[in-house]
Design goal:
Length: about 375
């Protein structure tokens, strides 16, 4: 009788421990919570993970598209606000074509005509942006379900998401396994670590596509944000936003952000490159590229006092000023996202690198490991 009672109590205890582990992992003021977010049309469940640090900064991530749905950071009065664009529910993300908050890949950005060669073998990937390939094709990494694993070995909340992209997917060669780990650090950084492998020579150039609006109010444009980019050159593009191959000086052009400058100051200047981009939608060639992580961008919003610094080990940074937003996307709280109400800072290799011998290589071979670390750090000024 006592034995049975003891057994019953032990089983009860085990059940409680197990269910706690599933829903939340709590460590010294930090926390991860897991909740069902919705179901895909094929019935698979999508989960949302909420990561919080001791300072109260909060990031929400879903395992569909490895998407950051919410990022709450304080202003100079300590008031938290969500500073990324997104949707109210899974349905929004399923229908999304602006890549809100997602990990894009295999190839972030454009490949001219979707064609490239590796070792003399020609490949054709999906053409989904006029005549070109964009952000992984029709069903890119932003449109698939990732396996999620709460990382328990760290004192900071971390979520590892893994996707296995099969040989031939969207025309890309080789089966690629990519793990993206989001860590919310105690220094108020959202750190993104990428690790990828392949079983055949392929190309890999994933990036993160959050639309930031540091006001915390998506009714405001991003034009008063002040930006610096540590880059002496950028890669000019043609009318289809494919780089010409030239590395052009930013000096004396609207592309010079070496000194902090309001984004809106020169965005409508008479400039062919700005016309092609409909604003800023270009890749900056980051200075002192040596594969180590260093600070490359600062973004400051004077009214809230919010400051975002971007660190990366990548050679390029696509700054996209939300030019395609035109009031047709119904985002969070039913808000219609208007022109230039969010901006992306996408750490990456240069666009169309597979076709530009003078750009850093994006080829990944069996036995090699693709690495990227990019950090978005939040503070006030
Ligand atoms: C990237 C591209 C833009 C646009 C957006 C998504 O940032 O550079 O041209 O395609 O993604 O709308």
């Amino acid at each position: 009788m006592w034995k049975n009672l003891l057994l019953f109590l032990l089983m009860l205890l085990a059940l409680i421990v197990l269910s706690c582990q599933d829903k939340s992992v709590k460590k010294a003021g930090t926390m991860i919570e897991k909740a069902i977010y919705g179901k895909l049309p094929d019935g698979r469940e999508v989960f949302q993970y909420t990561l919080k640090n001791a300072a109260g900064v909060e990031v929400r991530i879903i395992n569909y598209g490895a998407i950051v749905t919410t990022l709450k950071v304080p202003d100079r009065n300590g008031k938290l606000a969500d500073i990324v664009l997104g949707y109210d529910s899974l349905a929004g993300y399923l229908g999304d074509n602006a890549y809100l908050g997602a990990i894009v890949g295999r190839y972030g950005n454009r490949i001219g005509k979707g064609k490239f060669k590796i070792d003399e073998q020609e490949y054709q990937v999906t053409v989904n942006d006029g005549a070109n390939h964009l952000h992984g094709g029709k069903v890119g990494f932003n449109k698939v379900l990732w396996d999620a694993q709460v990382e328990s070995s760290t004192t900071e909340p971390a979520l590892a998401l893994t996707y296995v992209s099969l040989d031939g997917e969207e025309g890309y060669p080789g089966t690629v396994t990519l793990t993206v780990t989001y860590t919310l650090t105690n220094e108020n950084e959202l750190r993104i670590d990428y690790e990828g492998t392949t079983d055949k020579p392929t190309i890999l150039n994933p990036t993160h596509h959050s639309y930031f609006n540091l006001t915390g109010n998506p009714e405001e444009t991003i034009l008063n944000h002040e930006l610096t980019i540590d880059a002496a050159k950028f890669t000019p593009v043609d009318a289809g936003l494919i780089p010409t191959g030239e590395l052009a000086d930013v000096a004396s052009t609207p592309f010079d952000f070496n000194e902090s400058e309001k984004i809106g100051l020169r965005i409508n200047a008479q400039n062919e490159q700005l016309q092609f981009g409909r604003g800023y939608d270009h890749n900056w060639v980051l200075n002192s590229y040596d594969r180590t992580v260093h600070k490359v961008v600062t973004l400051y919003e004077p009214l809230s006092g919010r400051l975002m610094e971007v660190f990366t080990d990548q050679p390029g940074m696509q700054f996209y000023s939300g030019n395609f937003l035109n009031g047709t996307i119904r985002g969070k709280n039913g808000e219609l996202y208007q022109h230039r109400t969010g901006l992306c800072l996408e750490a990456q290799c240069f666009p169309d690198s597979p076709n530009k011998p003078n750009f850093p290589s994006v080829i990944l071979r069996p036995g090699q490991i693709y690495h990227q670390r990019t950090i978005y750090k939040f503070s006030i000024k």
